[in-house]
Amino acid sequence: xxxxxxxxxxxxxxxxxxxxxxxxxxxxxxxxxxxxxxxxxxxxxxxxxxxxxxxxxxxxxxxxxxxxxxxxxxxxxxxxxxxxxxxxxxxxxxxxxxxxxxxxxxxxxxxxxxxxxxxxxxxxxxxxxxxxxxxxxxxxxxxxxxxxxxxx
Length: 152
Known about the structure:
Layout (H helix, E strand, L loop, with lengths): L1 H18 L11 E5 L5 E6 L6 E7 L5 E7 L7 E6 L2 E6 L1 E4 L5 E8 L3 H9 L2 E5 L2 E5 L3 H11 L2
Antiparallel strand pairs: 1-2, 2-3, 3-4, 4-8, 5-6, 5-9, 7-8, 9-10
Helix pairs in contact: 2-3
């Protein structure tokens, strides 16, 4: 019986360690940026000059829909999860290539998604893919402005 408990504890510890490994190495200079060119609102986590991006959220203003793009995922996969303050949602994503021919995963959700609502309220967002998770620095003000622009 003690052996089963030890094996279970080891397995749980190994899974927890994997969940905290970063999806990609976040550059120390990465931060959230909010852009609102005509006809689109975009919230992006990446470098200020845009040469490296980890996550993009975009929408047509007041459409009620949000597009999610994970840039340079660790492997070809189709399942990504976002979590914020106790809420977690899984998204089925499509693999493709971004503007610079880098691999991306893209999908969409409603602006009313509970994770996006919590993100707008707290600024807290964690991305999970391929068994790895990464907490993104908080930016509650930008998240709230983004989601307000996307809602119907």
